[in-house]
Amino acid sequence: MIKKLCLSLLLSVNLVPSALADSLPERIDFFTELFDYASASKTYDIRDLQSSFPTKLLSPDSMLPQTANYPLKDIQQLYQLSKTCNGKLPLSPLITEPLVFTRSVCKGVKLNTRWFSRSALIHPGGGTYAARYIQKFPEEHETLKKFMHIKERTDEVGDELLTTLQQMDDETISSLIAGSIMFMDREQLWLRRGDYYHVFDKSVWSNNVEKAGLSLSIRSDSASCFVQRGNICWDVEDHSQILRFSMIVLVIANIMLVAGWAVYRWNSKRQEMRSRMLVLQILTHELRTPIASLSLTVEGFRREFEHLPETVYDEFRRLCEDTRRLRQLAEASKDYLQSDNQQLATDWIPSVEEWLLFKIEDEFPEGVAFKINQDVSAKINVYWLGTCVDNLIRNAVKYGVAPVTLDVQTGDSKLTIRVTDNGKLTSRDWSNLRKPFVSKSGLGLGLTIVESMVGRMGGKMKLIGPPTTFILEIPCETDVASR
Questions:
Q1: How far apart are CA 133 and CA 110, in angstroms?
Q2: What is the pTM of this model?
Q3: What residue ranges are annotated as transmembrane (predicted)?
Q4: Which of 309, 337, 365 is the last residue of a domain?
Q5: pLDDT number for residue 280
Q6: Same-domain pairing of 385 and 289
Q7: Which of 225, 269, 344, 371 has the most CB atoms around it within 10 Å of its CB?
Q8: Nearest-angstrom CA–CA distance, 27 and 388
Q9: What residues make up the domain containing 413?
């Protein structure tokens, strides 16, 4: 399931149009090829547009004083002459045409249409001759309006092109005058194809922008411009959101994979331990019959004890003790294996010191040093705690380095038991030592059982060193020792 999710995510990121592999200019060319020019909302013939609206009548600069074409001093004199109709005349030959116009207006002499058509159209002070002329002769408006700048003309019903041009900003007009291959006007895209401009609405061009893998903005709104066409700045479509989403999904998928692997490993280990516990349960159950039979045999020998020769008394005593221990082990194992979530039964021992000294002297005659801070009576599970201590001491004697010391610290509600030898084990070795069926000679299995039993008694077990020291912390009720 997770593999399919990752595969579909990678495919969704990589499945983009082939145009996305091209350079930015090539993508823009691909974008222009996506349009159906026959379905454009409007189409304008560039030749008709240029004949109806010459560049001078479109350019925003035409409305400003023409200081680049005429001396500033002559423009100022011409302005004074137009206001007062007398004064010193400009001497520059460049002012001849504006001077003729000004003197005609001052004298009230009308100029014919041919004069305007042959003129430069734009007055040195900015604006057209025609617009200034109809202020004096308003009846000539209809005749001369075609010589007026688009900003000077009033809205005319039915002239859609004029209205569109008047609503364009200066940057858009400049793009139109330059004959740009494309430019944007109030969310309408103008595309040039041959001698025609085709106009497309946003619903059309925005889809094609997405298909080409592009993003656009108006030049005046952009701090930087990678590729400019008209008043449009083009850039590659920003996929940062997709990449961010992809990264989040991949991280989540990885977390799910790791979590799934961890759960699988945990379940495998748990199933393995259950299988081994089942084997132990079967063995414990099957051992009860021969142990019971052995107990009956020992009981028969006991009844005939007075008829036994004295030479076998010690062997018979050991046989009785071993039989008793086997019976205790079988019962304790049955109790342990059948009650996973219950604490083990506990009993009071009058003296911890006496109990442990007897165990050491009886089980380890080779000698184990014993220390205790204060003797107390304690309520513990005698069999399993004794087994744990016995296991640790045997491991220290067999695998450790002499001498071996058993150190007991008693408290109001806890016993702390330390088994120490001069070995070099440290806490880092604990994870390997505790693995059942891994360590040599059953050491790992023994430590696993000890740790498990300590946990069942509500305690903790740990390893520190060097020197090698196993520590058991057993919570229990304690009282004054009584011997």
A1: 9
A2: 0.47
A3: 242-264
A4: 337
A5: 67
A6: no
A7: 344
A8: 78
A9: 343-480
Same domain assignment for residues 306 and 388:
no
Strand 214-218 vs strand 42-45: parallel, antiparallel, or unpaired? unpaired
Cα separation, 443 vs 194, whole angstroms: 92
- In the chain, the amino acid numbered 216 is L
- How many domains are there within the chain? 2
Where helices occur in 304-381 by DSSP H, the ranges are 313-338, 352-363
- Distance from the Cα of residue 107 to its chain's centroid: 82
3-state secondary structure (DSSP) of residue 342 = coil
The strand order across the sheet containing 182-185 reads 42-45, 196-200, 188-193, 182-185
* Residue 332 resides in a domain: yes
Rounded CA separation 117/128 (Å): 12
Question: In whole angstroms, what is the distance from residue 333 CA to residue 453 CA?
Answer: 11
Residues 291 and 369 in one domain: no
Burial classification of residue 179, based on how many CB atoms lie within 10 Å of its CB (0-12 exposed, 13-18 middle, 19 or more buried): exposed
Please give the pLDDT value at position 261. Answer: 92
Are 329 and 351 found together in one domain? no
Q: How many whole angstroms separate alpha carbon 352 and alpha carbon 372? A: 9
CB–CB of 196/43 below 8 Å? yes
Using CB atoms within 10 Å of the CB of residue 52, give its burial: 0 to 12 exposed, 13 to 18 middle, 19+ buried.
middle
DSSP result, 122-159: B-TTSSBHHHHHHHH-GGGHHHHGGGS-TTTSPP-TT-
272's tokens: 């393995």
- Answer yes or no: is 404 within a domain: yes
**Could you tell me how many helices (H) and strands (E) the chain has, helices first?**
17, 15
Most distant CA pair in the chain, distance = 167
Residue ranges of alpha helices (H) inside 34-144 are: 46-52, 72-84, 96-107, 113-118, 129-136, 141-144
Q: The tokens 């070099």 sit on which residue?
A: 424
Of the candidates 379, 386, 389, the residue with the CA atom closest to the CA atom of residue 470: 389
How far is C-alpha 305 from the chain's CA centre? 81
My answer on whether 415 and 476 are in the same domain is yes
Residues of the chain with confidence (pLDDT) below 70:
1-21, 157, 237-240, 277-278, 280-286, 288, 328-344, 434-445, 483
| 89 φ/ψ angles, rounded to the nearest 5 degrees | -90, 145
Concatenated DSSP letters for 157-225? Answer: TT-HHHHHHHHS-HHHHHHHHTT-SEEEETTEEEEEETTEEEEE-HHHHHHHHHHTTEEEEEGGG-S--
Q: Count of CB atoms within 10 A of residue 447's CB?
A: 23
Residue 357 lies in a domain: yes
Distance CA 19, CA 211 (A): 9
Residue 444 in contact with residue 434, Cβ under 8 Å?
Answer: yes
CA 439: distance to chain centroid?
42
